[in-house]
Amino acid sequence: MQTWKVALPMYNVGPTLTADYERFLEAVIAVLRARGWTDAIEVVRDIDDLEHFWLRSDLLLSQTCGYPLTTSLHGQVQLLGTPTYDVPGCSGVSYRSLLVVRADDSDAGMLRPMPALADFRGSTGVVNQLNSHSGMNALRHTVAPFAHKGYFFDKVHVSGSHLDSLVMVQNGSADVAAIDCVTFAYVARACPDKVFGLRILQESLAAPGLPFIASLQLNQTQSVILVEALEKVCVNRQIAEPLRITGLALTVEKDYQAIMAMEEFAIALGYLRLA
Fold first, then answer.
1. How far apart are CA 187 and CA 180, in angstroms?
2. Cα 262 to chain centroid, rounded
3. Which of 13, 141, 153, 194 could staple 186 via S-S, CB 3.0–4.6 A?
4. What is this structure's pTM?
5. Is 54 helix (H, G, I), strand (E, B) or coil?
């Protein structure tokens, strides 16, 4: 008998949210069981290589980023839909990145004009991952009009996570980071010390949020049952409200071309990579 794998690792900011997302998975599994799903299902907690995990033939449910969905995962996974969130920066299926910088006391006191994005040319940027829409692609799109000869930053670090990017901006190791607005809301609630001393410089253009995906090995009947289970759990207030999830949008891959359009915009301006 097939043992399907499930994991929702993208927004596990702290132990409380990790537990809340596991409760979400357990609720989905319970609905599947009630609808006659008999195959074994394993909740995977430790994932070394996310992209490899997303490409597993036995993947029943996970959540990815829109940038890999349209690039490295294109045609290799099936899109189930996109959860919607009730956080600042989200609107329907769309979300934004927040360009975060250190708050400056003199700025707060209005002793000098508040810096604009163009004033950060030549500074140090930081991204969570190079294949992240919210951390890399949205930031590249936003700074592209201000780049000169293919460069905006003096240097760009890769931190490994949005949380680590926030820490690097806080401690002065970097000056600008683009943070997924859902992550920022979670961090502000779960560990407010990680956003202390920071401010939002501006928001990126909106794009479709992080989608739920599954293996192409699921047949049509299985996919329908799974989507129905997700729809039910995403409106279960007891399960979804702690995650700020309000529902499930039945997105299609064409919706995510907005992310590719942002990449193409930057490339057309001669800004091929975040630099």
1. 11
2. 16
3. 13
4. 0.94
5. helix
